[in-house]
Amino acid sequence: MHKSYRGSEWFAFGSAVKRRFLISLNIIFMQTKEQKEIIIKELTEKLKNSKAVVFSDYKGLNVKDMTILRKDLREEGVDLQVLKKTLMNRALKDAGIEMDAKKLEGQVAIAVSSRDEVAAAKIIAKLAKVNENLKIVGGILGTKELSVDEVNALAKLPSKEELLSKLVGTLNAPVSGFVNVLAGNMRGFVTALQAIADKK
């Protein structure tokens, strides 16, 4: 079992390793006004171009698990960042998203997906099932705020790769069958996403 670092234990963790880990997650505790503005501007652009966003409480995750999570997300085009909720709110507002990050519980990380609507939700939900120290606390689809239940529902939808895999399996079928499967899969995918987005 991996050790989880909390409170004074976390700050007692090897300084060199800790510093590299924090930098890799874009965690900056002491920022100048100029640095804060740059962070807000960069996050705002990511949010404007995002397919979906997932917020998670990562308090209690050890270094190894957090590193694995970030790696898995990055491979799917998802950027994981940790910063103060006040800065998140500035970026959310500038991106035209009505949401208050301060109401999110815990130490919050923001995962922004630029390629896939379900990738971030799937990856975080998968790890959260086997690690109680990671909890989904909210999300965004388009500009719509999602509840925890809605993010979990999003995580259960097929990814683009899964849809393509199903379609490839129909290539040897009659053309009419292929067209029907194609239409059915895409209609289901779009309908499910829209239902989640419109629920709010």
Question: Features of this protein?
Answer:
55% helix, alpha+beta, 2 domains, globular, 200 residues, Alpha-Beta Plaits
What does this structure look like?
There is one protein chain. The chain is an alpha+beta fold and 200 residues long. It has two domains: 7-156, Ribosomal protein L10, N-terminal RNA-binding domain (Alpha-Beta Plaits), CATH 3.30.70; 158-200. It has nine helices and five strands, in the order αααβαβαβαββααα. Strands 2-3-1-4-5 form a five-stranded antiparallel β-sheet. A hairpin with a 2-residue loop joins strand 4 (135-141) and strand 5 (144-146). Helix 6 (119-130) crosses helix 7. It is globular and about 55 Å long.
List the helices and strands and how they pair.
Blueprint: H1 7-12, H2 15-24, H3 33-48, E1 52-57, H4 63-75, E2 78-82, H5 85-94, E3 108-113, H6 119-130, E4 135-141, E5 144-146, H7 148-155, H8 160-168, H9 175-199
Helix pairs in contact: 3-5, 6-7
